[in-house]
# Entry
Amino acid sequence: MTKQNLFDAKSCVNSTMFVVEMVSPPPPPPPRGSCINNISRKTLVEINGDPKIMKSWIDSMRASSPTHHMSTTLYEDKTSWMMRGTVRKLARYFPTAIVSGRCRDKVYNFVQLSELYYAGSHGMDIKGPSKGSKYSKKGTQAILFQPASKFLPMIIEVYKELLDKTKSIEGVRVENNKFCVSVHFRCVDEKKWGELSQEVRLVLKEYPKLKLCQGRKVLEIRPIIKWDKGKALQFLLQSLGYAKCNDVFPIYIGDDRTDEDAFKVLRERRQGLGILVSKTPKETHASYSLQEPSEVMKFLLLLIEWKMLSLRRQSKIQKQLEEIKSSLNY
# Structure
């Protein structure tokens, strides 16, 4: 891992792990979110009729959408299933959440681990374990939070319009992720990217309360609200009763531009760390980096091993203390 500024973790007793979904399910896999890129905020968030902005948008689509070889995709599909077992083990020792741009129900149907917290639609649809969590502080309730619920009818309208407007472009796939709409162009000829972005932009002209964002070979339409993955992270910490705890060390792993909001939250808290997953150096608020999902899995397994050793050590010390106490009483 590449080290930057890092809070001293030695003083922390507990740890909270927040895992971001990074690997697609078995083929045909939905496209993933993008890596971090140096793109102006105007280009990222809003498109207008300026040809220069349009060209910048197309350039950024190309820059943030590297080509993946089939062998890599198949390897990641295998890794995703192995990762599921690792995450299940992780959740035995740490409260664990998956934060994704996809619809929460789709993420759950793929992962199928009821003991996790799920934050879909970039954190706009959050739900905790149905039976509560052993990690929650006493008095906290089961989590269900949807800050963008009033936008649901609008999202459905836009989804239907985009299906109609883009149907003539071969390879495009429009996906309703409940609180956002994703227009995937992984299978679209690059010569058609300009036409596709123009069609999406024309639809959005009628919806000033929605914004257009970009990911890896995906255009995403989201509500304009002050909510992101960083806010979702803060909400989860608050819901678990950890917001003001100085003995909790949150860890957030992500490979998407939208994960930067969560990385920034942890850096500003000076408690916890963000880990960027990327094969190339990028500007980021994360403190460390890993190159690929297989390295993430190794890291999680090391964390599990550390926790197991720690628990054994604590158990041994407790047993010794009980023996000493027993001998003193005798």
User: Anything to note?
Assistant: The CA atoms of residues 62 and 217 lie 8 Å apart. The longest helix spans residues 293-329. Residues 1-16, 20-51, 69-75 have pLDDT under 50 and may be disordered. The chain is about 40% helix and 15% strand.
